[in-house]
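Quick log. Single chain, no ligands specified.
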Amino acid sequence: MSVRAGHGLKERIAGAPQRRAGRALVLGAVLASGFAWFSAESAPAVPAKSDPIGALIASQQTNLPMVIGLKLTENANRAQFTVELSDPIEAHAYTLSNPDRVVIDMPEVLWRVQNDARPSGRGLIRSYRYGLFRKGNFRFVVDLGRPVKVAEPKLLPPEGGAGFQLVLDFAPTTADDFAAHAGWPANVAPGASSATAQAPAPAAKSAVAKRTIVVDAGHGGIDPGTHGSSGIQEKDLVLLVAKELRKALEATGRYRVQLTRDNDVFIPLRERVNIARAAHGDLFVSLHADSNDHRDIRGASVYTLSEDASDREAARLAEKENMSDAIAGVDLTGENSPVASILIDLAQRDTMNRSVRLAEGVLGALPAATTVRPTNPHRAAGFAVLKAPDVPSVLVELGYLTNLDDERVMMTQAWRTRVAQALAGAIDAHFPAPPGLTTRQAANP
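-> predicted structure:
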């Protein structure tokens, strides 16, 4: 379903500069209230106003459409979002199952709502979130507590100094009816691939070929990952560390570094693996930050791929990370198991062995830069992002954003630099200098 309108609106918006949003969200903010994630059970993962990490990541795109207000009305048999917009544009809404959710795609928008509406958790709406799905495309996702029908959106003209009012109604329906209508329309591409990163250009001929290291900043865009008490979001933290790691590796002269993302955009898990393989990566390092209900737990850990999880915590973490695509509203219909199909391949065994060796090297280097979990810092589970059969891969949990000590140190530039240098040292040690050359000669072919 879609809605389109074509009139502009000039007005002064409280808390934002006076401007004309050339295009603004029609269905946009319908669900935009959750920059990260809202639910009845957990606090919102919204960046604090003073969050220096968010400030470093935030773009200065002041010419984007603006969302300026949101209201949620709900009872047992109805839910309605009313969104105030600076200008209307086109947007599309779809329903997807497993898990049941409503997905709304629209052009990129600027979120300027001061207080987001929260669902009660007892009605049709369980939670909702929004973020950049790919460049120029914002996505809003509503997680459902019960199957619903989504009415055609109604757009009301500005009145009394307010902006456009976009109204979207949800009504209960049967599970069979929801399933019958769920899925992407035949004339609309689901857009599962959002990656804009390209494989590095072939290296110039030299005496010593450079290794290719693929660095994956976890989460991104609509999928924020976990968050700390200050509002720092995992997606922002790991992107900064990924860029520091790229800088440290490139400074050696021995490596070409490919980031799976270099801005706040969502990249599906399968696409991250595809980027590593297309780049002919020699190593794949995925960076994340952890969370735990026990807030005294802290320290970094490293994960490698295994069909059988090493412990229950590893299994829970893998399950959470593997939900990234569902969080972002990717249609998972027809997806095979992300792990089992490749673990039966004998060629994977050598890759897994080299992954374990890299993990041990990382764990040997990290204590000089940060706190490492004192027990079982090396774990294994079925992480979808580690499944490339021909690229040794590790997933590094840099620490716990739910631990105040870890969060405090992770907010500092000094920590990010130290950790990046430690990871670069472990990667460098993984590849000995070619026979007959010193490390300096290898670094300067």
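The chain has two domains: 2-181, 211-443.
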